[in-house]
Design goal:
This protein is of the alpha+beta class. It folds into 3 domains: 1-45, no CATH class; 50-146 and 173-201, no CATH class; 213-276, no CATH class. It contains 6 helices and 7 strands. The strands form 2 sheets. It has a 5-stranded antiparallel β-sheet with strand order 2-3-4-1-7, with helices on one face. Strands 5-6 form a two-stranded antiparallel ribbon. Strand 5 and strand 6 form a beta hairpin. Bound molecules: flavin-adenine dinucleotide. Residues 213-214, 246-248, 257-259, 262 line the site of flavin-adenine dinucleotide (FAD).
Amino acid sequence: MSSVMSPDPIVKPGGRHQTNVSARANALAERLEKGASALATFASSLTEAEWQPRVPNDGRTIGLLPEAIYDGVGPGVTTATVQFNHGNADVIGGGMLADEFIVLPIIFWARQLPPDLPRWGLAAKRFMRENYTRVIRVTGPVQEIPSPDARVTLDPAVRDRWGIPVARLSGTTHPETVRTATFMQARTRDWLRAAGATQLWGKPPRLRISGGQHQAGTCRMGNDPQTSVVDRDCRVHGYDNLYIADGSVHVTNGGFNPVLTIMALAFRTAEHVAQAW
Ligand SMILES: Cc1cc2nc3c(=O)[nH]c(=O)nc-3n(C[C@H](O)[C@H](O)[C@H](O)COP(=O)(O)OP(=O)(O)OC[C@H]3O[C@@H](n4cnc5c(N)ncnc54)[C@H](O)[C@@H]3O)c2cc1C
């Protein structure tokens, strides 16, 4: 694809508008061509391990259903359960489960194809075409068990473009988190089987660094200044006038997406600040 004619029927042939539209369309086509070429280069550089769905410490399973269940335009989450938040036998904590957001076709290709399906060729294209709206992912963030081994520190050597040391993640999550995630993954499988899924896939949870989108615990809340940064009112231990209001005061992620809790705590903290000053 190297040039595109204006598809606009109201533009008169040869007119100034057509020249502008054609120029813009050609520029866009060139950019698309470059983008497609870069994507193809990137995709062909991926190892087989990188093709596979990422495996965070939540219980997740992907299932193929007999009928189309998504419209493919999103956002997609339609069903959730809080049945496994607490009181699960033999594991600590739990969390909510939900069907996941609609993903773009390229993300679908990268993360949601069955592991035994070829990534290229007719079979891959056919699977994408026939099953994009029939594949569903059920998942949920589990309440991670705090671990002193999992740390965020300042990197002593690497700095960002402003010269500020970058965050360095080390350690892994707690083994109990893996047990809870494994329990939750079994529930996602129950869900999908009951919904009629004809094929299920997804890797078992494992010990790993947890550094995704729900960061917590770097300024954890507690009564003891030896083991926490802020007190129950989110005031930094030992200071009268220093408060923290964000996700860092959470001691765990609680098995849910954290923003509503962050906001509730921020309002509560603001009330304490207003009362104290
Ligand atoms: C892709 C993605 C999807 C998510 N989806 C959901 C969801 O659906 N539901 C949900 O509940 N949560 C979701 N989360 C998680 C949620 O967004 C975070 O937990 C939340 O935003 C954390 O809030 P925070 O105030 O702790 O930190 P942030 O929102 O990260 O705020 C930190 C602020 O500090 C600023 N900052 C950083 N360094 C400096 C500096 N040196 N000086 C001044 N300012 C600085 C940053 O610019 C930023 O504005 C998602 C996160 C991601 C990444």
